[in-house]
Design goal:
Length: about 210
């Protein structure tokens, strides 16, 4: 009786599968590459953590504009399943949010990732964002002073406030020509430890 029941289930499963006449989008999935960012936390003017994907400029230093540096390296995760042609890097200057992340950075219970995201999501490239560079050779390391970033974005450093920030965003072009202009929000959240770094930035502090 038990064998008959098992065979009946198998036959039913085959019948259901053979009757299927709809192909769903999710059945034709492909793997997309994701940007990968490594911040040089040793060059941050204030202590930071790699998992936060954030660095800091400290305006308390009278020479911060030319002496301090924000350094980061851009690469990608291909999961051994795809290829990447290029990553477009966009830069913007942004005023502080109404509720910026706490500093020093607060960790989650696991003690590895920040308790909250360090920059706003979604990471959408806007018309006001300026194309900084199109990278085709990886990994690529960038080093910037506040003065250099300000000059590129047209920012007056004398008017910058605490928790304002420069933010880099990315558009990735796959080997087959597909352009990934935005990743799902949870996939870019530093507090979740997801394998997608769709933005990286540097905040201003005064301490």
């Amino acid at each position: 009786m038990k064998k008959f029941f098992v065979y009946s289930l198998l036959i039913l499963a085959v019948m259901i599968d053979s009757c299927k006449n709809v192909t769903y989008d999710w059945e034709n999935f492909t793997t997309a590459a994701t940007p990968k960012v490594t911040v040089n936390i040793e060059k941050s003017a204030l202590p930071t953590v790699q998992t936060g994907k954030v660095s800091f400029f400290n305006m308390k230093d009278p020479e911060f504009a030319t002496k301090q540096q924000f350094e980061w390296t851009l690469d990608y995760n291909d999961f051994d399943r795809t290829t990447v042609q290029s990553i477009e890097v966009y830069l913007s200057y942004n005023r502080r949010e109404s509720s910026p992340p706490a500093y020093p950075i607060v960790f989650s219970l696991a003690g590895v990732y920040p308790s909250i995201r360090q920059f706003p999501l979604p990471s959408t490239v806007l018309a006001t964002d300026k194309l900084f560079e199109t990278v085709t050779t990886f990994p690529k390391t960038f080093t910037h002073t506040p003065a250099e970033l300000a000059a590129f974005t047209g920012t007056n450093l004398s008017q910058v406030s605490v928790n304002d920030y420069f933010l880099f965003k990315f558009i990735l072009t796959m080997g087959d020509g597909r352009r990934i202009v935005q990743y799902q929000e949870n996939g870019c959240d530093e507090s979740r430890g997801e394998p997608c770094d769709c933005r990286v930035g540097v905040r201003f502090k005064n301490q």
